[in-house]
Amino acid sequence: MTVGTSAKYKWNHGSFCPETPCVCWNPETADCTYRNLRSIFFDLPSSIKTLILTGNKFSSVLDDTFINLINLNITRISMDHCRVNSISRRAFEYFEHLIFLDLSYNSLTFDDLETAMCSLNRSHLQILNISGNDLFVNPGFPTLGFFKCVWLRELTEVVMTEGTMEMPDFRLFSSLKKLEILDLRKNEISYIKQYNLTKLKNLNLADNKIQDLPFFLFSNLKVLNMTKNKLSVIDKLRENVSLPKLEYLNLSDNPITRIQSSSFDRLKNLKSLIIDHIKETIVDSYTFASDSLEILSIGNIAYFPTSIFSNCLKLQSLTILNTEFSDKNFTEFILPLKRLHTLRISHSKIKFIPTLQNFSRLLHLDLSQNSLKNIQSSVFDDLKSIRSIVLHHNLILSIDYISFPSFVWKNKAISLDLSSNPFDCGCQVIWFVKWLRNNKERAENFPDSYKCVSPSDKHGLLANFDASDCYRPNQYLILSFTICGCLSIMCFTAIILRKLRWDIKYYIHIYKTRKPSRYKRILDDEFLYDGFVAYNTSDRQRIMSELIENLEKKYNFKLCLQERDILPGGIFVDDIHHSIEASRKFILVLSNNFMSDQWCRYEALIANLTVVDGRSEKVLIVLLGEISSQYMTNSMKTLMKSTVNLEWTEKASGKKLFWTRIQIEMHK
To answer: In terms of domains, do 484 and 610 share one?
Structure first.
C-alpha cells in the first residue's frame, strides 16, 4: 500500500464514507471514479457492497491492491477504463461474494484474464464484462480456457464487445451451463461455428460483418439482435433456423434488398420484428403474415403491396420509416390491423391525413417529420381512445380549435406534440397560444420548440406572442362592416317591400281616399261596350269569373267577351276588329298562356297599333304574373311602357286595391 498518498486527495465529509476520496451517496455504494487512484489505501464503511473504480490508473492489480477491503462483503466491482495491463493470481481472492465484475476497456489479454478468473475463490460470479481489451480469438481453435474455470460456472451474462473476434466457436461457452445473455457487439465476426447453448436467451451480434444468416440452433433463445451487419438476403430464416422460442428479432441497418413472402413463418413465437434503416427494399405480399407478431418496425420500403399487413391479426404497434407515401392513402395498407394501438409513420413525405376509421383502439399516433400542412378535425373523430398525437417537424402553419375534435382539446389525458413547425404568427394563433399556456403539461417540448417563423417581425417563441395589435380597431374592417350592414338593411327592406307591396299600396290608397268620392259613370253613345276583354281561355277560371262579377255586376260596366258576345258565322278577324272599335277600353289579360296563343298575339298586335295611333289611354293591361323573357319582344316592351299596367294578385288587400284601380281606369 502506498504511504503518504492521502495528502493528494480531497476528502468527502458529506457522504457515507468521509475521510476517503470516494463519494458514497448511499450506505452500500462507493463511487471512486476518476480519482487517479493506483491502490486502495483507505478504509471503507463495512456496509459497502458496490465499488466503482472507473477511470483510475491501476496499471497492475496486485495481490494486496484490495487488502484494505478484506472484511467487506463486496458483490460488485467496476474497474473499466483503468489502464490495467496485468492482474496477479490472488488479486480477487478476497471477494467470496462477488457476482458482478467489469474489467472492460483495459489492456488485458486472454492469459491475464485466465490468471485472474481462476483466483476468484469460491465466489459465484454471474456477470462478466471484458469488452474493449486486447483480446484475439484464433479462428481455428478456441483459446478462452478461463471460461472453464470452476468459479465461472454460475455466469449468466458475458459481455465481449469491441474486440477483434472474426469466427467465434460457440463451444467456447459450452461449460457455462447457466449462460443466458451473450453480447458480442462490435467485433469483426463474419462467421459463427454453432453450438446449442441450451440456456441462452439473449444473443447480441450487432455491428459485425456477418453476410449470411448462420444456422442458428438455440432452443431457448428469445432475443436476437443482428443490426449493422452485411446481410443482403434473409431467406435462411425459412430454412436453416431453429429458434422455436424467439420473441424479438432486429435486422436493422443491413443491405437487405428483398424480403420474400412468409420469411418469418418458422418463428412461431415472434412478437417483435425490427427491420428499419435498410436500403430500398422490395417487400412481397403477406411478408409479415404471423399469428404471434405484435410489434413491427420497418423502413425504406421501395415497393409497398396493399396486402403487406394481411394476416397480421395480433399486430398492436407499427412503425414505418423512410417509406415515401406522398399522395398515397396509407390507411389502405393498415386497414386489416384492427388491434393497432400505436402507429408511427415518420420521414415518409405524408401530405395529408386520411380519415382514421376502424382504429378505435389507437392510443398513440406519430406522424412526425413529414410534409403535413393542414389538419382536418374529422380525421380524428373515431379516435376516442387516443392518448398522444405527435406531429412535430411538419409544415403546419396554423392551429386553431377546429384542427382537432373538441375531446382532444378538453381531455387532459391526451398529450400533443406540435413542436418544430413553421408557425405563421398572425392573429389567428391567439387561441392556440392561450391553450398552450394553460396546458403546458400536455404540450410536449413547449415552449422552447414552438417558434414563429412568419411574419418576419414576429420571429421568436410562440409563447411570447404579443396579441396587442390584434385588438386595435381596424379602419378598413370598420368600413367593411358598415358597408355590409347598410347593404343588409337595404336588402332586407327590399325583400319586405316586395313581400308586402300590395298591403302597402292598399294602405297608401286608403290614406289618399279617406274622403271617397262617388264616381259617376259617363255613358258615351258612340261606344257599344265599356271594354273589350282579350284573354286566353286557359285563364278563364283564374280571373274571368271575378272580372265579370266586379265590373259588370258590381260596377255596371258592359264588357265584350269573345266567347259570349261575338256570334258565330261571321268573319272572325272582322268581328274582333269591330268589337274592339265598339269598346271604350281595350283590356288585355296578359299571361304566358296568352302570349303562346297565336290569336291572342294578334290581339296584342291590334293593341300596339292602337297605341301607335295615339290612343294609348284606350289600352289597359292586366298582368296575371311574370311574363317569360322569350315573349318580351321590343314591341311588347313598348306596349307595356306606353299603357297602364295592373298586376293581379291573390292577396285580399291586393285585390281591394286592384278593383279600385281598375274601376278608376275604366272611368277615364
So the answer is: no
> Distances from the Cα of 287 to the Cαs of 343, 398, 595, in angstroms?
19, 40, 77
Task: Quick: pLDDT tens for 475-518.
Answer: 666 778 888 888 888 888 888 877 666 556 545 654 554 444 33
197 SS3 class:
coil
Domain that holds residue 644: 522-667
Count of structural domains within the chain: 3
Contact between residue 271 and residue 293 where contact means Cβ atoms under 8 Å apart = yes
Looking at the fold, whether 31 and 168 belong to one and the same domain comes out as yes
Give pLDDT tens digits for 427-477. 889 999 999 999 999 999 999 999 999 988 888 899 898 887 777 665 666
Q: For the stretch 339-372, what's the b/e string if a residue is b when 16 or more beta carbons lie within 10 angstroms of its beta carbon?
A: ebbbbbbbbbebebbeebeebebbbbbbbbbbeb
Pair 574, 493 in one domain = no
**pLDDT for the residue numbered 371:** 93
257 CB-near residues (< 8 Å, 6+ apart): 232, 233, 279, 281, 282
DSSP string covering 250-295: E--SS---EE-TTTTTT-TT--EEEE-S-SSEEE-TTTT-BSS--E
Got the DSSP string for 477-534?
A: HHHHHHHHHHHHHHHHHHHHHHHTHHHHHHHHHHHHTSS--PPPP---TT-SEEEEEE
